[in-house]
């Protein structure tokens, strides 16, 4: 059974890496957005494999659903198409270099660090007694309230900026 899980993990990881590669190499921005949705679905599968079904559902509803609708809405509103891609094609090389450096850093961290140990007051017993959803809600609306609100304001500013840019051209 564990061999099958390992095979499934590597299969999903391969699809996630392939769709992430398509995000940065597709010439059409809509195709890039669809590839990003596929990457989000792969992340949701990873959450399910980590026994966090609530986070998987949030990943699909919030990121693959709402955020991608906003991103595609802004792309359609700006209507820049593939002209933007041709101007910034040299950025793909920089993205590959950054991704390679990030991969080296992740490998070094995994080999030298202890990334799988449980540190802190929340362990598997607390998760099973209290529940994922309640712990996430408590953390989000107590410790991380300011970053949560700042992210929502950032999304609002991005949408307003896209509308302002689109209105200049019309």
Summary, kept brief:
Helix content is 84%, strand content 0%.
What do you see in this structure?
84% of the residues lie in helices and 0% in strands. It folds into two domains: 102 residues, Up-down Bundle (Four Helix Bundle (Hemerythrin (Met), subunit A)); 47 residues. The protein has eight helices and no strands. The model has no long low-confidence stretch (mean pLDDT 82). The chain starts with a helix and ends with a helix. It is mostly helical and 170 residues long.
Q: Report the count of strand segments.
A: 0
What's the shape? globular
Number of helices: 8
CATH architecture title of the largest domain: Up-down Bundle
**Which sequence of SSEs, written as H and E, runs from N to C?**
HHHHHHHH
Helical residue percent band: over 70%
CATH class label of the largest domain: Mainly Alpha
Average pLDDT metric: 82
Distance between the termini: 59 Å
What is the CATH fold-level name of the largest domain? Answer: Four Helix Bundle (Hemerythrin (Met), subunit A)
The domain tally reads 2
Tell me about the largest β-sheet: none
In CATH, the homologous superfamily of the largest domain goes by the name NADH-ubiquinone/plastoquinone oxidoreductase chain 6, subunit NuoJ
Low-confidence stretches: none
Structural class per helix/strand content?
mainly alpha
């Amino acid at each position: 059974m564990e061999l099958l899980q390992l095979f499934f993990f590597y299969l999903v990881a391969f699809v996630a890496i392939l769709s992430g590669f398509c995000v940065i190499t597709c010439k059409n921005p809509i195709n890039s957005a669809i590839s990003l949705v596929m990457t989000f679905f792969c992340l949701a599968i990873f959450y399910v494999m980590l026994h966090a079904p609530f986070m998987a559902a949030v990943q699909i509803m919030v990121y693959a659903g709402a955020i991608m609708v906003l991103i595609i809405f802004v792309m359609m509103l700006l209507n820049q198409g593939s002209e933007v891609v041709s101007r910034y094609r040299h950025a793909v090389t920089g993205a590959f270099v950054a991704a390679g450096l990030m991969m080296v850093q992740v490998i070094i961290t995994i080999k030298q660090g202890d990334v799988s140990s449980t540190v802190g007051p929340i362990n598997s017993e607390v998760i099973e007694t209290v529940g994922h959803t309640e712990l996430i809600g408590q953390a989000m609306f107590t410790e991380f309230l300011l970053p949560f609100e700042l992210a929502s304001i950032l999304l609002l500013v991005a949408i307003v900026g896209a509308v302002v840019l689109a209105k200049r051209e019309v």
